[in-house]
User: Fold these one by one.
Assistant:
Number 1:
Amino acid sequence: GENVEQHPSTLSVQEGDSAVIKCTYSDSASNYFPWYKQELGKGSQLIIDIRSNVGEKKDQRIAVTLNKTAKHFSLHITETQPEDSAVYFCAASNPNTGNQFYFGTGTSLTVIP
Amino acid sequence: NAGVTQTPKFQVLKTGQSMTLQCAQDMNHEYMSWYRQDPGMGLRLIHYSVGAGITDQGEVPNGYNVSRSTTEDFPLRLLSAAPSQTSVYFCASSRQSVRGELFFGEGSRLTVL
């Protein structure tokens, strides 16, 4: 099955700086890559996703890049704010062959005011 | 907007006891799933369902049973709880299986003594 690795496990940045979280995947057939944000005591929420037919996607301060050749994708958060502090999970799936998301191990992001 | 509702939020069990975690969604989603979240291990899929009457195993199904008698409900049963099942459990649903957004409940924290 798919194996998704996520780094770093913890990340602290100063407010206003950028944060980057990286994930790698093992199954070259995976073609959908969402990112979820989990705030303390809550369920995860989708913040951005990318499909394998594009290399980059942006939504305001958040962007995701995908390198299919290297099998890695990254989350970029610019101009970080304290409310960005949360645990972030990457995931991969191949809807053509299965019904499972494979999640990374999570990154705990702290934005220091 | 109720979304995905999980009960109970907290539960303490003794080894060998049984219990059911309830999950209900009001979005008419066909796909429902259960994850467990453990420190350093991310979200791991226990069981999932692609529609009423259909269930399948995920990555870590042992010790858990599920059923899907209606589109709305997807309960997770622990028949004989073990300390290794101490975890935070999340129910999630999706309209498009693993092609689109997962909507998560707020989680159920289970401790098995």
Number 2:
Amino acid sequence: GAVVSQHPSWVICKSGTSVKIECRSLDFQATTMFWYRQFPKQSLMLMATSNEGSKATYEQGVEKDKFLINHASLTLSTLTVTSAHPEDSSFYICSAPPAGGPNEQYFGPGTRLTVT
Amino acid sequence: DAKTTQPPSMDCAEGRAANLPCNHSTISGNEYVYWYRQIHSQGPQYIIHGLKNNETNEMASLIITEDRKSSTLILPHATLRDTAVYYCIVRVAGANQGGKLIFGQGTELSVKP
């Protein structure tokens, strides 16, 4: 099946700094990618839809100025957590449906962010 | 997208069939039933999806009731590696529908030796 990678797999940063997480579709093109956040013992929460060549669409309650999303190419989307705080510590997961392909989505392995 | 209801947890003996139910009584005619699972600390994995007919693939079978208000995911011979949280999601298929998945709480399946 199709492969989605994320980098880094885990990151520790200090409060107030920014962290960039990459999401890549390795063997297919994706005009749309999705970013989720998951706190311990909870389900995935959709944060935003990343659109290649246009602005991301954020879900209600998600701060677009804090979670910057850039979809620079058909295989890469990035999520930057700006001025991170301990409450931003979470598991961040991206997903992508192959453009013009089947309806299922392929998920990345996730990035564990810890803000100290 | 229609809301789904799943039991929070289930146990299954290794080698036996695991039957995971999902209620989606408000499903619309153009909405599909999707199943994903998430093994601890990994990204979710697609399992199967269907509209109204029963579906089977190498991972599982999906049984959808005739009125489409509920479905059951069947893992025919559960192994310890099937221990995961299983999510039933109902949504309209196709990239032109946005494609986003809204996850509920899912069912935590524990396969025991």
